[in-house]
Write a structure and sequence with these properties.
alpha+beta; Arc Repressor Mutant, subunit A; Chorismate lyase; two-stranded antiparallel ribbon; 28% helix; elongated
Length: 237
């Protein structure tokens, strides 16, 4: 019974969101918390679940907006493919914004995950993937400059490093990915137009060529409500 007030709050919020037209801003947190008789911290916690479902979006400095329910991109993870390729295969329209390609030097952490020397020259590609004009994923690829230089990319480069490498004919063999749920850091929250600390689905991966050399280290951040990933496994003996 101790959770009943919180459950009641979620029910009230669900009803409020359901009767609010998509695109309309909800009351401010102070106004809404007063109307519902709860603290701002409790209200914020209750709203997180609706944000992860893709029903609302909180924009720093602008407020919380109802966005309606969008279809989620539902895909297995058994085969590595770019988000753009996955979306096209499933009939989703996506676009890329905030594309950034820059040269950086390997710090101790990047040197370790890419198996290069500290200070080695790297190329970092960052971009935001949007659907229905909403940011839904933030992607970062980091590669040794000897494998990818910013000048190698065509002027019409649309953001998928994997598709570029495959199109170039690079001999890629496998990828190791780690998956976790994390709170958005300040830079990722800004890119995705969400609040710092909001829950995201996080992949960090290493891509290998046929010789076992690490080709790419990638960081991917997904707003959960827009993605349903799954793995098909066979039953062991």
């Amino acid at each position: 019974m101790s959770n009943f007030p919180f459950q009641r709050l979620q029910i009230d919020l669900a009803a409020l969101i359901a009767r609010t037209p998509a695109g309309q801003r909800l009351l401010s947190e102070p106004e809404l918390s007063k109307e519902l008789g709860v603290s701002r911290a409790t209200l914020r916690e209750a709203m997180r679940s609706f944000e992860t479902q893709g029903l609302i979006r909180r924009r720093q400095g602008s407020g919380t907006f109802v966005v309606g329910k969008s279809p989620a991109l539902d895909s297995g993870l058994e085969v590595l493919e770019s988000l753009e390729t996955m979306a096209k295969r499933l009939g989703f329209e996506v676009s890329v914004s905030k594309l950034s390609v820059e040269a950086v030097s390997a710090d101790e952490e990047l040197a370790a995950v890419l198996n290069v020397s500290p200070g080695a020259r790297l190329t970092r590609v960052q971009r935001v993937v949007n659907t229905d004009s909403r940011p839904v994923a933030y992607l970062v690829d980091i590669l040794p400059e000897e494998l990818l230089h910013s000048e190698d990319l065509p002027t019409n480069f649309h953001g998928s490093v994997l598709d570029f490498l495959l199109g170039r004919g690079d001999s890629l063999s496998s990828s190791r990915a780690n998956v976790s749920a994390i709170g958005a850091t300040a830079d990722v929250a800004k890119a995705l137009e969400i609040q710092r600390g909001d829950v995201l689905l996080h992949f960090y991966s290493q891509l290998f060529d046929v010789n076992g050399k690490i080709v790419d280290y990638s960081l991917s951040y997904f707003i959960p409500g827009y993605f349903h990933f799954h793995v098909v496994r066979r039953v062991g003996n």
